Amino acid sequence: MGERSGWTRRGFLSARGLGAMSGGLLGELVSDTSFSFLSENRTVLQLSMARRAMGCEFSVQLPAACPDGLNAGEAALDEIEEMERLLTVYADDSDAAYLNRHAAARPVRTDGRFFALLARSVELHRLTEGAFDVATHALLTAWGFFKGPRRVPDEPQRRAALACSGMRFVELAPADRTVRYLAEGVGINFGSIGKGYGIDRAIARLRDRGGLESILLQGGLSSVRAVGSPGRDGQGWRVGLQDPTDRRRRLATVRLIDRAMGTSGIDQQSFEVGGRRFGHILDPRTGWPVEPLASASAVAADAATADALATAFFVMGLDKTRIFCQNHPDIGALLVLRPDDRLAGEAERRGGLERRSVTRPQVVTFNLSARDVKFEPADAGRCRPM
């Protein structure tokens, strides 16, 4: 399938020296003396394979000594392509497109994997009090973030789109896996969770083969899930968080072991009208773009959850994300504040803030220890996680 710009909602991850990615803002896979890759000293050899899907490049990394590694990697990437065929709204023959055309008229029976993702989306919508919502296709279309052109809808257009957006219009019947829309014009768009779910499905497929204790699967420049550690030291995979205001700089590195990380921001998808910038991440409750932060990252057990919560945290902003993480200690967050954000001083007084110089954004972390996150430069400040 060709590139579909609607999937590239974020741009944050890259893998250095592994032949898969370049550039991005969940920055790089990082090497140090105890954690070396192909490009460094070859003490830990990794088999890396990549393929384009969902409008971006996915890469899978396995131990070079993995039996039948090439076939295993191909199987993982096949799974991601299959998820695209189910979830994309950019192809008329996908399950998502079919559902959007017919579910307002009658209940539509869905694929089990599709239904599972939609059910998880309902749960995440509830957990985030509506900050995460996949039933926003009408709003994305009104703003031109689906197939363009990008524009600011007039007030009647925005209200009309908002009137047929939201999970309140989506009815699920688990007994027969059917979905019904309760209003005309309702549509789902999995752009804020689809990559992560594809990664999770691919990881499950690899684990079904057995014998794999170290896996890293990356989707575009925004989503990554790590299994085990590439070295015997058990230090895990280290992923860099780049500066959204200057992509040449890295703000921090995050250590991942059996966890996933997703990052949301609007640096790659925004437009200006009358000197005002509008980003593609919409508050589904108001129908307006939000940009309270420079970027938001979530760390969770699976990539779908990390992706969804990264978007939700971006919508929720600093204070509500702090409360969410207090209530969910298994979820980690890294919020990059805008350099001119007046909330920065308030956040520092509350704690959880990594203090930086005036030329660098400030980073707030929740439920992540100093062992999980290392800031750069090392003397930039101290991390006081909530």
Plain-language structure description:
By secondary structure, this protein is of the alpha+beta class. 27% of the residues lie in helices and 24% in strands. It contains 8 helices and 19 strands. The protein has helices spanning 69-87, 95-102, 112-127, 137-142, 155-162, 194-209, 303-327, 343-350; strands spanning 46-53, 56-63, 108-109, 170-173, 178-181, 215-219, 223-227, 237-243, 246-256, 259-264, 270-273, 276-279, 282-283, 288-289, 295-300, 332-336, 353-354, 363-366, 373-375. Strands 1-2-6-7-10-15-16-18-17 form a 9-stranded antiparallel sheet. It has a 3-stranded antiparallel sheet with strand order 3-5-4, with helices on one face. It has a 3-stranded antiparallel sheet with strand order 8-9-19, with no helix packed on it. Helix 1 packs antiparallel against helix 6 and helix 6 (194-209) crosses helix 7. The longest helix has 25 residues, at 303-327.
Helix content: 25-40%
The low-confidence parts are 1-24, 27-43, 341-345, 353-358, 381-386
Compute the number of strand runs: 19
Beta-strand residue percentage: 15-25%
How do the helices and strands follow one another from N- to C-terminus? EEHHEHHHEEHEEEEEEEEEEHEHEEE
Shape from CA axes? Answer: globular
Number of helices: 8
Nearest-angstrom radius of gyration?
20 Å
**Distance between the ends:** 43 Å
Mean residue pLDDT: 83
- Largest sheet report: 9 strands, antiparallel
| Physical arrangement of strands within the biggest beta sheet | 1-2-6-7-10-15-16-18-17
